[in-house]
Write a structure and sequence with these properties.
Radius of gyration: 19 Å
Shape: globular
Number of strands: 0
Low-confidence stretches: none
Largest sheet: none
Structural class: mainly alpha
Oligomer: single chain
Order of helices and strands: HHHHHHHHH
Mean pLDDT: 94
């Protein structure tokens, strides 16, 4: 398996764990019950474990990055097992711990505090907030009277980060336009490069934005099951969009 494919896979699961984990505060467990928080942390723990397994395919059990993975995984596990509706100082420490650990791993992956890191962080937020909202939407079947406010907050965060990413990606595409010119020998060639760009922009940005408008309207009328269905589709599209984006970065150095 090529090194860039391993990098894409590890990056994806690392950012999924970080992105979902950083938004666990949106819906209070007093409203959702401890079960939802346990579910969310299980998703984060599973994603961290997969990223660690990929890292161990080329790293060692005792290298510094593996140890940081262990710290993040332990924090998610302790939150899952010890969570109570009334968050203690210890729970907040664990929350900060897994976020800082995964942020450090992201910085190590993307050359420290750089434009690559900031772009990667924006991708993390986009991936995380959509996935979080999708999981939260399913929980309205468990707690039918749950307020729709957390879903509205998630969509507003989505729109804010989507605006940032569209502007940034557009600028980077302009700077690297030679990559997409006819007869180019860069990357995988003219047709392949445009296919990747079309998938990234069309599925990762345009479709997600259009679907987010429908989601907002459905949430406003409290049609949460329908909104969850749309969020599920959005999650699939953001997975594809961010995987394509990660591939373009690790293979060709493009921030799109």
């Amino acid at each position: 398996m090529g090194a860039e494919i391993l990098n894409v896979a590890e990056f994806f699961f690392m950012t999924l764990a970080l992105g979902v984990g950083m938004f666990t505060w949106i819906a209070s467990s007093k409203l959702t019950g401890a079960g939802f928080q346990q579910l969310i942390n299980s998703v984060c723990l599973g994603s961290t474990a997969i990223a660690l397994a990929i890292h161990l395919s080329y790293g060692t059990f005792t290298d510094p990055l593996s140890i940081i993975y262990y710290i993040a995984a332990a924090a998610f596990l302790l939150i899952r097992q010890l969570h109570k509706d009334e968050k203690s100082v210890f729970m907040w420490i664990l929350f900060i711990t897994h976020n800082l650990a995964l942020l450090y791993l992201l910085m190590d992956f993307l050359n420290g505090w750089s434009s690559q890191f900031r772009f990667g962080l924006s991708s993390t937020i986009l991936l995380g907030v959509i996935t979080y909202a999708m999981i939260l939407g399913h929980y309205y079947l468990v707690v039918p009277k749950l307020s729709v406010r957390p879903l509205k907050i998630s969509i507003l965060i989505l729109w804010a980060i989507l605006a940032v990413k569209i502007i940034w990606s557009s600028y980077e595409t302009y700077l690297n336009w030679g990559f997409f010119k006819e007869f180019t020998q860069l990357g995988g060639g003219y047709a392949f490069n445009w296919l990747m760009l079309t998938m990234r922009v069309g599925w990762g940005y345009v479709v997600i934005f259009a679907m987010s408008i429908f989601t907002w309207k459905l949430v406003k009328i409290r049609s949460t099951q329908s909104a969850t269905g749309v969020l599920y589709a959005m999650t699939i599209f953001v997975f594809v969009g961010e995987l394509v984006s990660a591939y373009l970065f690790f293979k060709y150095g493009l921030l799109i």
